[in-house]
Design brief:
The protein is mainly β. It folds into three domains: 90 residues, no CATH class; 79 residues, Immunoglobulin-like, CATH 2.60.40; 75 residues. The chain is built from no helices and 22 strands. The strands form eight sheets. A four-stranded antiparallel sheet has the order 1-6-3-4, with no helix packed on it. It has a four-stranded mixed sheet with strand order 7-12-11-9, with no helix packed on it. It has a four-stranded mixed sheet with strand order 14-13-18-16, with no helix packed on it. Strand 19 and strand 20 form a beta hairpin. It starts with 30 loop residues before the first strand and ends in a 9-residue tail after the last strand. The N terminus and C terminus are likely disordered. Bound molecules: zinc ion.
Length: 342
């Protein structure tokens, strides 16, 4: 649209302008020019008249806008004109022509009036489809994890999605893949739901899915049995019950004879933790641990300081240090006292 420089506004002394040189609107700005007056000179003889709008070849209209023409006034007494309020979306690179019943006047303000508007093309709003109801075990024992899955969410803009679970115990998963594991620490009934969000636009998320009810029962009791080998090396520890899933810390029992030493665990010891003391063990089943000791022999008058431990593998104590086990080598201080093994 063009508007005369002088005066610089749309409404001026004459009421009619040919050009608008005001700054073009910013990308998201809307602007309306109105009224655009259309009439015929009193000398015009045709029954119809044409009103055309054409985009500039020199300054082509931006393609991220829409261009709208609305009819806002039809002259009095004119019949056969489009109804007031009709809106035309103007094509970008074609001439738009409207044929109207002729209205002759010396005062253009009495003629047809239009409003021409430009506006940003509205960007589609993103929405995320609600994910499916979580699936997975509907009954669990406390402290026993189960895998739960959801899915089926999409972005209407084709963006990637990620999922979150609410576990019904006040905790939620992180955002991520549609399958997760969870365990509940207390017996009860829990309502598990999921939702999804756009991975690109984290603020755009779905509503919560329908729910899965999970019933959590008290954990089964399992028994930890600790044996001592050889049996004379240390006091045995009575078997103890634990809730299934509990993580238990056990230390090797104290040897009864200072010449005996804990070597390693055998039985249900986690691989790689045979020499740990204390040892952490997850009670996911009945478990038996055997504390294996080195059965040292007490030899009076040895080592020149009155006594010492002599081991069946032929090593003797020296300056209060002995081998504790063969592999890996580990030194352990020993209290030397003048005594004999009974
Ligand atoms: Zn998105």
């Amino acid at each position: 649209m063009y508007h005369e420089y002088d005066p610089p506004e749309w409404t001026g002394e004459t009421g009619f302008y040919q050009a608008d040189y005001r700054a073009p609107p910013a990308a998201n700005e809307s602007k309306t020019w109105a009224p655009l007056c259309v009439w015929a000179e009193p000398t015009y003889s045709g029954d119809t008249m044409q009103f055309s709008m054409q985009s500039s070849a020199t300054y082509p209209p931006p393609t991220d806008r829409e261009y709208l023409l609305e009819l806002v006034q039809v002259p009095e007494g004119v019949t056969g004109a489009p109804p007031v309020g009709t809106v035309w979306t103007l094509p970008l690179n074609q001439t738009f022509t409207l044929t109207l019943p002729t209205y002759r006047t010396a005062n253009g303000l009495e003629g047809y009036q239009f409003a021409f508007a430009i506006a940003a093309v509205p960007t589609p709003t993103e929405s995320i489809a609600t994910p499916s109801s979580p699936s997975g075990p509907s009954s669990r024992q406390a402290n026993n994890g189960g895998d739960y899955s959801t899915g089926g969410s999409t972005s209407n803009l084709g963006h990637g999605v990620e999922y979150e679970f609410a576990w019904g115990d006040g905790t939620q998963s992180s955002w991520g893949p549609p399958s997760r594991s969870h365990s509940w620490s207390s017996p009860g009934t829990y309502v598990v739901k999921a939702r999804a969000r756009c991975a690109t636009h984290p603020g755009v998320m779905s509503v919560w899915s329908s729910s899965l009810t999970v019933t959590v029962t008290a954990p089964e009791r399992v028994t930890l049995t600790i044996l001592v080998e050889p049996a004379v090396a240390a006091e045995t520890i009575p078997p103890a019950e634990h809730p299934r899933g509990e993580v238990v810390t056990v230390a090797a029992p104290e040897p009864q004879d200072p010449c005996d030493y804990f070597i390693r665990w055998t039985g249900d010891v986690p691989v790689g933790h045979e020499y740990d003391s204390p040892l952490s063990i997850t009670m996911d089943a009945d478990k038996t641990l055997t504390a294996n000791f080195y059965d040292g022999q007490w030899v009076p008058g040895f080592c020149g300081i009155g006594g010492g431990c002599q081991f069946s593998m032929g090593l003797v104590c020296l300056a209060g240090l002995v081998f504790m086990k063969s592999v890996p080598l580990k030194l352990k201080p020993v209290t030397h006292r003048r005594r004999t093994k009974s």
